[in-house]
Amino acid sequence: MTEQDDTRLVDSGADSEDTAVEAALRPRALDEFVGQERVREQLTLVLSAARQRGASADHVLLSGGPGLGKTTLSMIIAAEMGAPIRITSGPAIQHAGDLAAILSSLTEGEVLFLDEIHRMSRPAEEMLYMAMEDFRVDVVVGKGPGATAIPLELPPFTLVGATTRAGLLPPPLRDRFGFTGHLDFYEPAELERVLHRSAGLLGVEIEPAGAAEIAGRSRGTPRIANRLLRRVRDFAQVRADGFVTREVAARALEVFEVDAGGLDRLDRAVLHALLKLFDGGPVGLSTLAVAVGEERETVEEVAEPFLVRAGLLARTPRGRVATPAAWAHLGLNRR
Ligand SMILES: Nc1ncnc2c1ncn2[C@@H]1O[C@H](COP(=O)(O)OP(=O)(O)OP(=O)(O)O)[C@@H](O)[C@H]1O
Ligand SMILES: [Mg+2]
């Protein structure tokens, strides 16, 4: 996700405040990384084996939605390998030459973190294929018929690619990773552990029921959990004695309009219109968007994905339909 300022408290992308505080909240070792048991076990094996062989680890692809821990894991990989890390991203690499400059300055065993790898340009991608497979790049010097390719040997390195859209990666690129870790949404109990850990680091006193209250509203996403924790801390500091109980957390998130299911004002407006104005649907997307006074894209891309994931709304060929759970969620009786 790009770093943008967003007024939505439940957006899974990073805003500027997140960017500023996340570094402090990032787990630094694999056993501090909460949840994702399978990926963690697989990575532990891949990294220990490489360490035993005294070699750099195979290339790793991390896929999963915003805020689920891809950047965090990439830094952990470097730390576990005792290797330096170089950070760049697909959009930052416009020309193959940009990539050649980075690759040719890597040191042996270094981890190259390539965020948003699906947004890299085609020529850069092709250079990356060769670098990943043969640890070599061809640097083209000159233009036209006189251009020559000078092969350049690279030291062994580990590429860690991250993407929110694994499906957009061309198969030849995907195939060159030795290991792909897919990050899923977190269970509430896992988010509670994230919250206790973050509270400890931020010096926030929180009781287990307070953490549970925040976890339930965090949409399965550690970044959102950490952000809600900061708003709850504000509330606890100003309106209570600083201690986060279940009640303090619930009251705080009511003020910030994040409900018990993690829905914010926009989500609820969409659901409300669907139920009250269209009797639960089916209704077309454009009509629904007009009813809530939003752009079609906003409803479709910002509100709907979570409503669908939460089992509150379904997209059907005839239009949007509310599920029985939607009526229950808004406390309405189905007519
Ligand atoms: N498994 C985890 N345990 C503890 N904290 C986590 C975990 N995963 C993520 N976090 C926290 O969530 C925040 C966001 O994680 P991170 O930046 O790694 O997400 P990302 O997948 O790279 O997101 P994006 O797609 O937006 O780049 C980090 O500050 C980190 O503290
Ligand atoms: Mg990231």
Q: How would you sum up this structure, described in words?
A:
The protein is α/β, with parallel strands linked by helices and 335 residues long. It has 3 domains: 36-182, P-loop containing nucleotide triphosphate hydrolases (Rossmann fold, 3-Layer(aba) Sandwich), CATH 3.40.50; 188-255, Helicase, Ruva Protein, domain 3, CATH 1.10.8.60; 265-329, Winged helix-like DNA-binding domain superfamily/Winged helix DNA-binding domain (Arc Repressor Mutant, subunit A). The chain is 47% helix and 13% strand. It has 14 helices and 9 strands. It has helices spanning 16-25, 37-53, 70-81, 96-104, 122-134, 171-175, 188-202, 208-215, 222-239, 246-255, 265-276, 285-292, 296-309, 324-329, and strands at 60-63, 85-89, 111-115, 136-141, 148-153, 158-163, 179-182, 313-316, 319-322. A 5-stranded parallel sheet has the order 2-3-6-1-7, with helices on one face. Strands 4-5 form a two-stranded antiparallel sheet. The chain has a two-stranded antiparallel ribbon with strand order 8-9. Helix 7 packs across helix 9 and helix 11 crosses helix 12. It is globular, with a radius of gyration of 23 Å. It starts with 15 loop residues before the first helix and ends in a 6-residue tail after the last helix. Bound molecules: adenosine-5'-triphosphate and magnesium ion. Residues 1, 13-14, 22, 25-27, 33-36, 66-72, 164, 194, 222-223, 226 line the site of adenosine-5'-triphosphate.
